[in-house]
Design a protein that fits this description.
The chain is about 35% helix and about 20% strand. By secondary structure, the chain is an alpha/beta fold. The strands form 4 sheets. It has an 8-stranded antiparallel sheet with strand order 3-2-4-1-10-9-11-14, with helices on one face. The chain is globular and about 75 Å long. The protein starts with a strand and ends in an 18-residue tail after the last helix.
């Protein structure tokens, strides 16, 4: 969850780290801190709250000039977000400074043992246990890298650790287990961080680290071993976006910018997927056709917004492949003794590729013999590395904590996977697949049409600043779109919002409807069996209870006009593709309402971008 950066080189380390933390603050903003080494002494500054608080402290009390340091922005797990609990943490002798992402599960036992040795703790965090233990190991062996390996061997849980030694200038040592860590490769300088965004201003060359590895960086070298000290295999890659992609570009919020980036992000997700022979080509899917054909069940595993993308995928994949498809919350999956085997194909969806619940779920699935395909936006992340195949969404960096282009590109990637499976399994003819691909290629333009009318949605949001309760309804693929609309409002506006399958309305939820309740309804396109008419009936039912009805309906459908207080027109698309266009006005509405309420849209309270702990 937390953001981490370490630097060694010829630049001013304080500025490098502060700039890196600014790019990582979406990962946590309960506190921030920095430690640098100068003349054999560690100097630390840390403050509770957002990074601006740390900047203020450094402006009034600057740290000494240095070229060697670490920084951290925190999402609190153990211990309140206070100055004392902020990172970096120092060892008892003041020689070690350490930052940590994750959870150390055996911290209580380790802490008791260290306290019995006379170690005095300054915080309530599990992270300080790692700092104190590393200090003990360093005193015993005298080498930071060796001490880090020894420390990691005693820790249980998920962690990324980055440390510096006051007596060992020009060296940063880091380690990872079940938590993200990447190396930035520079010229006369090197970086470690939890995300490439931290060093994208300085280099676009990176090295992905594997599980249970320790990396030591100096200005001129990078050395990677496993926890036992054996040389480890790594892979270098080039980051295909630059620093400008992580700037606001004139928008007030990153989230609003990312909403408006969706046409480009969807186009990039589709790019190069369809060859001159009229075949879908998903090069990253390294599972043989025979294995894909023998799969008798598909299980989609995800959390939050990605889970709703998976719900959309279920409708499309089952329709196109005729293979039973389940959608599972990753946090529940392995605890209910799921029935999976070597004929099960698991599909995991994670924007960051580091979602801990999802990672543990796929490990369980692979232990049962299932094959795993990951849908992910982050190159080199843990989940795609530990999967059998991956489909990258190519959405570019998503800084806003509430996912927007992450959702739409995940849905599009799921469509591609469903069509690819239909192609391999022969459940759709080539011309049928071409027709769907042709419509997918029009989605960027359709989304742009919705964005071009954003001002109407903004006006609606500003008119509802005093509303406390919202209801979202949908059927078929409109149901997960409704759930996503409700989630966005909860995440950003901190208001009560519920999403329901419209057919369930009469089975209880209609009791909460009254004249103060706006009800957003996603109406299926006309001609979709009886779904359209049933949803129109649902609109009439809530209208009869006094609700303000906000109806999202395809352009040209006049049948709902008599029952709609507000109409939001959507481009005409086939039913299965409708969530991609229907969710956009819901994103715009939540963003604008939260902004009108004075909330921090990019960094909503209590949330962080990537949930890297269970």
């Amino acid at each position: 969850m937390c953001g981490i950066i370490g630097y060694v080189g010829d630049k001013d380390v304080v500025q490098v780290i502060l700039d890196g933390l600014a790019r990582l603050e979406y990962r946590g903003y309960d506190s921030a801190g920095i430690a640098v080494e100068a003349d054999g002494v560690l100097h630390v500054a840390k403050r509770a709250g957002k990074l601006a608080n740390l900047r203020e402290q450094l402006a009034s009390t600057p740290l000494p000039s240095s070229h060697h340091g670490i920084g951290h922005t925190r999402w609190a797990t153990h211990g309140q977000p206070t100055d004392a609990n902020a990172h970096p943490h120092l060892s008892d002798d003041g020689r070690i400074a350490l930052v940590h992402n994750g959870i150390i599960e055996n911290h209580a036992a380790l802490r008791a043992d260290l306290e019995a040795r006379g170690i005095v703790f300054a915080s309530q965090t599990d992270s300080e246990v790692a700092a104190q233990l590393l200090g003990v190991e360093l005193a015993a062996c005298g080498d930071l890298t060796q001490a880090m390996r020894a420390t990691c061997g005693q820790l249980a849980g998920a962690f990324t650790l980055v440390a510096i030694d006051a007596q060992d200038p020009d060296r940063v040592v880091a380690a990872r287990r079940n938590s993200p860590l990447v190396v930035g490769v520079g010229q006369g300088e090197n970086f470690v961080a939890s995300d490439v965004a931290a060093f994208i201003d300085h280099t676009r060359e990176a090295i992905e680290l594997g599980q249970d590895q320790v990396v030591t960086i100096t200005p001129s070298s990078i050395d990677v071993t496993d926890f036992d000290g054996h040389p480890a295999t790594t892979r270098r890659y080039h980051v295909d976006w630059d620093a400008s992609a992580a700037e606001k570009g004139g928008f007030d919020w990153f989230m609003r910018k990312e909403i408006f980036e969706q046409p480009r992000a969807i186009a990039d997700t589709l790019l190069g997927r369809y060859d001159e022979r009229g075949q879908l080509t998903l090069d990253e899917v390294r599972i043989g056709p025979e294995e894909l054909r023998r799969a008798d069940k598909i299980v989609i595993i995800a959390c939050g917004t990605a889970f709703y993308a998976g719900m959309v995928a279920k409708y499309a994949i089952e329709h196109w492949t005729r293979v039973p498809c389940e959608v599972e919350l990753a946090s529940e999956f392995r605890y209910r003794d799921p029935i999976i085997d070597s004929r099960t194909l698991c599909v995991t969806i994670s924007q960051s590729g580091e979602t801990m619940d999802t990672l543990m779920a796929i490990r369980y699935a692979r232990e049962q013999g299932a094959r795993v395909i990951a849908i992910c936006n982050t190159y080199g992340a843990t989940i795609p590395r530990e999967s059998d195949a991956v489909i990258y969404t190519h959405a570019g960096p998503e800084i806003g904590v509430a996912s927007t282009k992450g959702f739409t590109t995940q849905v599009v990637a799921c469509y591609l996977l469903g069509l690819f499976l239909a192609q391999v399994r022969g459940t759709k003819y080539g011309d049928e697949i071409r027709a769907v691909v042709a419509e997918l290629e029009q989605l960027p333009e359709y989304v742009q049409q919705v964005l071009d009318r954003a001002d109407d949605t903004y006006a609606l949001a500003r008119a509802m600043v005093d509303v406390q309760d919202f209801v979202f309804l949908g059927r078929h693929v409109g149901y997960p779109a409704a759930l996503e609309g409700a989630l966005k409002l909860k995440e950003l506006a901190y208001l009560h919002a519920e999403g329901f399958a419209a057919g369930e309305l009469k089975h209880g939820p209609i009791a909460i409807i009254d004249s103060t309740t706006p009800v957003f309804v996603v109406v299926p396109p006309q001609g979709r069996d009886q779904l359209h008419d049933k949803v129109v009936s649902n609109i009439q039912e809530v209208r009869a209870r006094g609700a303000h009805t906000v109806v999202l309906v395809e352009r040209g459908d006049e049948s709902v006009a008599p029952y709609a207080d507000t109409v939001i027109e959507l481009p005409r698309v086939s039913t299965l593709l409708q969530p991609v266009v229907a969710v956009v006005p819901l994103q715009l509405f939540a963003c604008e309402l939260a902004s009108a309420l004075g909330n921090d849209v990019d960094q909503p309270r209590n949330l962080a971008k990537s949930v890297t702990v269970e």
